[in-house]
Amino acid sequence: MRFFLDFTFFLNILTVVTIFGKETYIPDASLSVPKIIKRHGYPAETHIVDTKDGYLLEVHRIPYGKNAKQSKNFPVLLQHGIVASSADWIINGPSKALAYQLADQGYDVWLGNSRGNTYSRTHINRSPQNEEFWNFSFHEMGIYDMPATIDYILERTNRSQLNYIGHSMGTCIFFVMCSVLPEYNYKIRVQISLAPVAYIHHMTSTLNSLAPYANQIEKASNWISHGAFLPQNAASKLVNKYLCGEDASNSLLCKKYIVYKLFGEDSVQFDMSLLPIILGHNPAGTSVKTLMHFAQEIRTKNFQQFDHGKEENIKIYNCSHPPKYNLSNVIAPVAFYYAQNDIIADPKDVIELYSHLPNRLGLNLIEFDQFNHVDFLYSKNIIDMVYQSVLNTISTTEFEDWVPVFDNTTIYNAIDNIHCNDIELRERNSRKTNKGFWSKLTGYIKKKEVSPLVNIKEQHSEKTAESRNTYTKAWKELFNE
Questions:
Q1: Could you list the residue range(s) of the whole structural domain that residue 265 is in?
Q2: Out of 16, 65, 90, 183, which could bridge 103 as a Cys pair, Cβ 3.0 to 4.6 Å?
Q3: Alpha-carbon distance 477 to 105, whole Å?
Q4: Same structural domain for residues 106 and 218?
C-alpha cells in the first residue's frame, strides 16, 4: 500500500513539473544505439538474428575500438537486464561504459537485445499488437534468443567460443540456456555475471511489492497493451523530458521515486547526470509473462520453468508443477560480481545460486556498502570498482578453447529437467505405459539388480561403466541388435 501511495504522489508531482519544467536537449538520450556509438567515434554495425520460433532480434556490434590495429578480434557478448536494451552498455560514455572499454582493449563487442524490447519487436508473422507476440518469458529468451545470437556471432567471426557478460536478467537467461541446452556450455569461454539473478526470494525492491498483484497486472496489461510490459512510449519519454532533466529538484524526485525504490539507495556512486539518458532508453519493454515468471520465482523460492497451472503443466511437462532448472548442467566457467546494497540480486540469493554451479571462477563482492543494482552499469568509479577486475578475468582465460572431460553419462543430466515427483501422476503414467518399452527396460534393469544412472558427480568409474554396459545390453536385447 505504501508503494501505491508513493506512486500516486509521484504522478502528482509529475503533472506539476510537466507544466513548469524546462526542456534540455541531450543527444544520447534520443539517438539510437548505433548512432550513439558512431557519435563517440567508434565503428557500429547492426545485425538481425532470427530465432527458431520466428522472432527477429537486432544485435549491435562494435568490431574494434579507436585503435583498430591492436584488435584481438575475440568476440564478447553483452546481454542486458529486464526491460532494458543494448543501450545499457554504452550509456556511461567512452571513458566508463563496458562496451567501449572492451572495444578499446581489442575485443569484438556484440550487444544483444532480447525479444520484445525496443530493438527486437519484430516477428515473421506476428504483430506486437497481437497477444500471441508477447507469449514468452525469460525461458524463451534462454532457449531461443541466446542460442540463436551465439550461433550467429560464432559463425560471423569464425570462432568456436565467445566470452559472455550478463547483467541481471542477462545472467538468468544464460543459466536457462546452459541448463536446458548443455551443449552451449562448450561455446562459452568464460561467463561474467554482474548482479546475477535466478533465485530472487530475498529481493526487497519495490518490484517485490508487485509480485502478489502479478495476476491483476497481467489482466490489466493484456487489456491495455496486449501483453507488453513497460514498452518505450510517450509516457516514459514524458518522465524523461519533464521530471528527470538537469534541474536539481527534478533529480531529487527521480532519485527517490525511480532509482532508490527500484534498485537501492546510493547517493555517492550513482551518476544522476546520466538519468535523462538512462530514461531516454529505459524502460525498453518486455512481456507481462516475463514479469509473471519472476513473480512465480519469488513465491516458490525456486529457479524453475513457467507455471501454467496444474492442467497445462501436465500437458506441457507431464507433471502438475514446473520442473526446476538443472544448474548442475551449467559447466561453463562462471565468475560472479555482486553488491551488498543490491535489493534485486540480494547477496543471500546470489550465494545460493553460486553454490549450485560446478565450474566457479570467483565470487566477488563489491567493496562499497552503497553499491546497488544499476551501479554495475552507471557508477562513477565503475572501472576501478568492477570493470578492471572483469577485464582481468577475461584476459586470464585467453587460452585454447576448453573441453571439459566427462563420460557419456553427462547426457543423462539433461533428463533431470523433466523429472516429476507427483506420486499420483507417476502411477497414472505407469499404468498407461505398463506394456511399453520403458516398462520392459526398467524390468530388465531391476532383474539384473543394477541401479539406474545418477548424477555424474556421485558415480565411481566402475559403477558408471557397469550401468552403461547394462543399458547398452538391454537396448540390444529388446531390439534384437
A1: 22-395
A2: 65
A3: 59
A4: yes
